[in-house]
């Protein structure tokens, strides 16, 4: 699938893969430190592995046919597992990411129109506005000044949410969100040994105390989002077309009941979390990868300058190089690097019996780097995603946004946003890595550079 010679390709950093399975203690320590390091060579070589470990009966499935069975063909038999829910639910409550059954169906059906192709296209001017403001803001800094690109991207992605899904704003400083999200990820996102061992929920998890201020912060954000909406409606204003309106108007077609208030609140937090940190990470990795591959950087810059037209943001659709770069970044560093499900009833996958209760890990990170599915799997080669090659990728070999009924509802939103932002930034600036910086992926719910990413932001005309 790759077209460039292997020797010219940049191979970005990834954790070493052990040759043999880890013992119990090493498993716990690795999952706590950096879960991406848990994958052994066998996971990349074998389509499915199953066995009993300290975590109970676990399987790892990294084959397109297995992915299709779990996420699509037999999706009703695979629910989100308890460990995943224990990590996500304190923040995300019973929102769209964590809900199940009828509650999930009602939420998904109510929110789907907001993410239809037409509705997402209507968000393009708002995304362009945020990108242009960022370019302008950067122009006030010294040429070549160093920026923490992870922070910059999450600021942009939050501002996009404020201009689209939360049309009355979020009412807080972006830096406050950044602090709260980091606090949450560093506490709830760090696997607790008690959870790994399946200890009962009433036993206190001391590592989580650090995350409580973040939960309080999100509670207060939700209060102000809902109060602002009430004030607008009480004052006779029209309900804007944003996230809150379909949530407030949702009705179960059979019972006529609306969504409980707690689920509405949960979705406000869910969309703040799911809607910015993931795209921001994909953008951060894209800029890093481009900084290390001069040929692709040149192609991306040329496209940003000559194909994208800021006066017509829908021209992002013609930017196939920028899209390919972003998709390749999501292949190498999928922001949602670990997906998992638990079998409700017995099943069989690729001829392997899967007893009821088995927890199955499906890591996009592993799947995206399997040597039998990808040429030069660890190398940065966006050409695999150019139009001429894109159709050759199996739908179930590339799942940065998941698959099946629970596929990411924000996928088209995120792709559009990412291309518009990259186009705007690369038209004017070149991002160069600050020398001597060690870049390594770290998984804390999402996959981000361990110590952030510091880059010089140089005006292109001066490079
Ligand atoms: C690069 C950006 C993104 C990535 C990589 C990503 C990844 C994913 C993945 C893998 C899932 C499926 C999880 C599973 O099956 O267990 C998912 C679900 C979800 N995503 Fe995204 N996402 C991104 C952007 C967004 C955006 C921009 C939004 C909102 C504006 C969003 C909202 C959601 C929601 C609400 C769900 C749950 C859908 C459901 O279960 O029905 N995501 N995302």
Keyphrases for this structure?
single chain, 463 residues, Cytochrome p450, 5-stranded mixed sheet, 18 helices, 46% helix
Description of the molecule:
The chain is of the alpha+beta class and 463 residues long. The protein has one domain (6-462): Cytochrome P450 (Cytochrome p450, Orthogonal Bundle). The protein contains 18 helices and twelve strands. The chain has helices spanning 24-33, 41-45, 64-73, 82-92, 101-111, 117-122, 124-139, 149-163, 174-187, 193-196, 212-234, 244-249, 261-291, 294-306, 320-332, 364-367, 387-390, 411-428, and strands at residues 48-53, 56-61, 78-79, 146-148, 339-343, 347-349, 352-354, 359-362, 429-433, 441-444, 446-449, 454-459. The strands form four sheets. It has a five-stranded mixed sheet with strand order 1-2-8-5-3. A three-stranded antiparallel sheet has the order 4-12-9. Strand 10 and strand 11 (446-449) form a beta hairpin. Helix 14 (294-306) crosses helix 15. 42% of the residues are buried. The chain binds protoporphyrin IX containing FE (HEM).
Helix fraction by DSSP (H/I, runs of at least 4):
40-55%
Number of strands: 12
Strand-pairing-aware structural class: alpha+beta
Please trace the helix and strand order, writing H or E for each element: HHEEHEHHHHEHHHHHHHHEEEEHHHEEEE
Number of structurally distinct domains: 1
CATH H level, superfamily name: Cytochrome P450
The assigned CATH architecture is Orthogonal Bundle
Strand order of the largest sheet: 1-2-8-5-3
Unreliably modeled segments: none
Shape: globular
The hetero compounds bound to this protein are: protoporphyrin IX containing FE
Radius of gyration: 22 Å
Q: Sketch the major β-sheet.
A: 5 strands, mixed
Number of helices: 18
- Beta fraction: 5-15%
Average of per-residue pLDDT values? 91
Report, as a whole number of angstroms, the end-to-end distance. 33 Å
């Amino acid at each position: 699938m790759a077209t460039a010679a292997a020797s010219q390709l940049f191979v970005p950093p990834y954790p070493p893969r052990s040759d043999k399975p880890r013992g119990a203690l090493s498993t716990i320590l690795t999952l706590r430190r950096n879960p991406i390091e848990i994958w052994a060579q066998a996971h990349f070589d074998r389509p499915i592995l199953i066995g009993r470990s300290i975590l109970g009966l676990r399987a790892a499935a990294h084959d397109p046919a297995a992915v299709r069975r779990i996420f699509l063909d037999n999706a009703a038999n695979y629910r989100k597992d308890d460990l995943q829910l224990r990590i996500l639910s304190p923040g995300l409550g019973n929102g769209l990411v964590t809900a199940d059954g009828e509650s999930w169906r009602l939420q998904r059906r109510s929110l789907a129109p907001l993410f239809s192709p037409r509705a997402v296209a209507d968000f393009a001017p708002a995304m362009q506005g945020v990108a242009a403001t960022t370019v302008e803001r950067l122009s006030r800094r010294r040429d070549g000044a160093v920026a923490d690109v992870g922070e910059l991207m999450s600021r942009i992605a939050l501002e996009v949410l404020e201009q689209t899904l939360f049309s009355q704003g979020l009412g807080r400083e972006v830096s406050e969100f950044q602090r709260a999200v980091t606090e949450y990820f560093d506490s709830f996102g760090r696997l607790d040994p008690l959870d790994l061992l399946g200890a009962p929920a009433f036993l206190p998890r001391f590592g989580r105390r650090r995350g409580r201020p973040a939960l309080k912060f999100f509670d207060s954000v939700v209060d102000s989002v809902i109060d602002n909406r009430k004030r607008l409606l009480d004052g006779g204003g029209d309900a804007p077309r944003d996230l809150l309106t379909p949530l407030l108007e949702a009705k179960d077609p059979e019972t006529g009941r609306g969504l409980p208030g707690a689920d509405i609140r949960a979705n406000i937090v869910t969309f703040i979390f799911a809607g910015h940190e993931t795209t921001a990470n994909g953008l951060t990795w894209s800029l890093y990868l481009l900084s290390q591959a001069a040929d692709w950087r040149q192609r991306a810059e040329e496209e940003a300058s000559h194909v994208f037209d800021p006066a017509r943001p829908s021209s992002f659709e013609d930017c196939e190089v920028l899209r390919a770069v972003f998709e390749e970044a999501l292949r190498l560093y999928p922001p949602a690097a670990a997906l998992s499900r638990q079998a409700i009833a017995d099943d069989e996958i690729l001829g392997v019996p899967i007893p009821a209760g088995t927890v199955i890990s499906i890591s996009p990170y592993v799947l995206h780097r399997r040597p039998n599915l990808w040429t030069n799997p660890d190398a940065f080669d966006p050409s695999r995603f150019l139009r001429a090659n894109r159709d050759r990728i199996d739908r179930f070999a590339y799942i940065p946004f998941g698959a099946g009924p629970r596929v990411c509802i924000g996928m088209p939103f995120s792709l559009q946003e990412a291309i518009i932002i990259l186009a705007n930034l690369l038209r004017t600036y070149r991002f160069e890595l600050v020398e001597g910086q060690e870049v390594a992926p770290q998984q804390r719910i999402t996959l981000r550079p361990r110590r952030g990413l510091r880059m010089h932001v140089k005006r292109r005309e001066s490079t």
